[in-house]
Amino acid sequence: KTMNSNNNTKAKDSNEFDIRDVLNYILGKLWIVLLAILCFAVVAVVLSGVKAKHYTSSAELFITQTTNPNSISPNDISTGKQLAITSPSLVNLTFCNTVAEQINTENPDFIKKYEGIIGPKITGAQILSCIKARTDEETSIVTFTATTKDPELSKDLVNIVTEAFRTYIVTFMHPGIDVNDNEAMDKISIRTMVSSYGVRNDTPSNIHT
To answer: Where are the alpha helices (H) located in the chain, listed in sequence order?
Structure first.
């Protein structure tokens, strides 16, 4: 009985000794753990400061056809939806080059305002990298978004592109029409309406402006 008691005591002391060793080891290395946590925290703060913010602004273009001013036929609805569905594929480099040329030649205030971001001239490639267009297939609405490093640039650019596309889709359906001729515009069947929205913070991976 005494031998068993001694064995139990030794086992208990051994266990306590092992636990103390483990605790002492952990406490001895605790500074390493704390230092690692601190390093990760510092790196996270630095990266968050270095990573530039991006801002996205959006606008919606509603496209419809009205062959009869007093009613809208199923064919009108179908045509409007088809134009909307096709629209994103038309927002390509060729279209963006046209928009860039218009901005560079007709909108010097825009260039002057954002020269520090876009350079002395804006290019179609720059616009294409910032602009996205998508369509809800259940509606005749095309949503345009512009994402850049400047909230005002995002807002101005999406409005310019949306208005340019609005003109493009009208002339696409009615070749030769003068979009500045209000009387002529009142007679065409294609109708468009633009709605603009605010700017939100965003962090996309593919921004070149």
So the answer is: 2-50, 74-90, 93-106, 108-118, 124-130, 151-173, 182-187
